Amino acid sequence: EIVLTQSPGTLSLSPGERATLSCRASQSLSRSFLAWYQQKVGQAPRLLIYATSSRATGIPDRFSGSGSGTDFTLTISRLEPEDFAVYHCQQYGTSPYTFGQGTKLEIK
Amino acid sequence: QVQLVQSGAEVRKPGASVKVSCKASGYSFSAHHFHWVRQAPGQRLEWMGIINPSGGSTSYSKKFQGRVTMTTSTSTSTVYMELSSLGSADTAVYYCARAGNTGWQGIASYYDYWGQGTLVTVSS
Question: A97, B45: Cβ pair inside 8 Å?
Answer without folding.
Answer: no
